[in-house]
Design brief:
Pathway: Cofactor biosynthesis; thiamine diphosphate biosynthesis; thiamine diphosphate from thiamine phosphate: step 1/1
CATH architecture of the largest domain: Alpha-Beta Complex
Number of helices: 10
CATH superfamily of the largest domain: PurM-like C-terminal domain
Keywords: ATP-binding, Kinase, Magnesium, Metal-binding, Nucleotide-binding, Thiamine biosynthesis, Transferase
Enzyme class: transferase
Protein name: Thiamine-monophosphate kinase
CATH topology of the largest domain: Phosphoribosyl-aminoimidazole Synthetase, Chain A, domain 2
Number of domains: 2
Number of strands: 11
CATH class of the largest domain: Alpha Beta
Order of helices and strands: HEHEHEEEHHHEHEHHEHEEE
Radius of gyration: 20 Å
Distance between the termini: 38 Å
Helix content: 25-40%
InterPro entries: PurM-like_C_dom, PurM-like_C_sf, PurM-like_N, PurM-like_N_sf, ThiL-like
Shape: globular
Strand order of the largest sheet: 6-8-5-9-7-10-11
Length: 329
């Protein structure tokens, strides 16, 4: 039977040691030692995934390994940071070897793609709970921050938001879709693609950025609040996948604007940078769409808010908010 230390060594430490050493000291000591490149700062982010809250109990463990790291890499992408390494701490009900083999394969498949080294962690017995901390590096002057947007900036989004929420609704039985669309939605939910290449390409072009983890409507407000601005969004400019476009319009909007788990990037840039942003996205192999504009508050007493419009500039009365972990279904 696997002990705690044989589990760590067999499924995680051995694989980590085969990777290029990005840390000065990785697995095997009381602490890892990580140093960014000269002139760069360390970017650090932590995410927790809890069974029954962030993923279904029957999720494919390979997909769970991928997603656990992907959501953290997405935070680095939103900062324009280059991945360096990560730690993994998790509670596991029992040491199932087939589960561990698949989970670690999904984790390291993604880690290897982004040259992101496992440098430490911990494990214990308990309800399935994953906590990853990821480390990256970025120069302070090009880091993409939430408080750097300016009035007049274009608002952009990558990919096609809403597919992950459509997948969640499908699994919950909220709507019925074809077998082909079901496979598309499920992959969007379980295998999100962190936009690391796009985040790196946007350094020096974008002003403010974040990743869409809790829904575009809720996450964009973080930029508005930190930058003290308002926004106008043209909902007809939202890029929708063909699968999402086959669902009813109200479902499309709910998924694309308020659905979570997309891990796309929402960012702002000056209008003069439009061609450069398009070129950066093409270089990164990611689709981007311009969906709105930042504006100054009309008075100091006004709260940052989003005005929703259609393509004809007609106001839309949409009551949307992002995902809230303490007020979720």
């Amino acid at each position: 039977m696997l002990s705690e230390f044989s589990l760590i060594d067999r499924y995680f430490a051995q694989r980590a040691r085969t990777n290029t050493q990005r840390a000065a000291l990785g697995i095997g000591d009381d602490c890892a030692l990580v140093s960014p490149a000269p002139g760069e700062m360390l970017a650090v982010s932590t995410d927790m995934l809890v069974e029954g809250r962030h993923f279904f109990p029957d999720i494919d463990p390979h997909a769970l390994g991928h997603k656990a790291l992907a959501v953290n890499l997405s935070d680095l992408a939103a900062m324009g940071a280059q991945p360096l390494g990560f730690t993994l701490a998790f509670a596991l009900p029992k040491p199932n070897e087939d589960w561990l083999a698949a989970f670690s394969a999904g984790l390291f498949d993604l880690a290897d793609r982004f040259d992101c080294e496992l440098i430490g962690g911990d494990t214990t017995a308990g309800p399935l709970n994953l906590c990853l901390t990821v480390f990256g590096s970025v120069r302070q002057d090009v880091a993409l921050r939430r408080d750097a947007a300016q009035a007049g900036d274009d608002i952009w989004v990558s990919g096609m938001p809403g597919d992950a929420r459509a997948g969640l609704g499908m699994l919950r039985g909220e709507w019925q879709v074809s077998e082909q669309d079901a496979a598309h939605f499920r992959r969007a939910l379980e295998y999100p693609e962190p936009r690391v290449s796009l985040g790196l390409a946007l350094r020096g072009l974008a002003r403010a950025a974040l990743d869409v983890s809790d829904g575009l409507a809720g996450d964009l407000r973080h930029i508005l609040e930190r930058s003290n601005l308002a926004a106008t969004i043209d909902v007809d400019s939202l890029p929708l996948s063909p699968a999402l476009a086959r669902l009813p319009r109200e479902v499309q909007l709910q998924c694309a604007l308020a659905g979570g788990d997309d891990y796309e990037l929402c960012f702002t840039a000056a209008p003069a940078q439009r061609a450069a942003v398009e070129a950066a996205a093409q270089q990164a192999g990611v689709r981007v769409a311009r969906i709105g504009t930042m504006s100054a508050l009309t008075s100091p007493q006004d709260a940052p808010a989003i005005a929703w419009r259609d393509a004809a500039c007609k106001p839309l009365n949409l009551k949307l908010q992002g995902f809230d972990h303490f007020h979720a279904d």
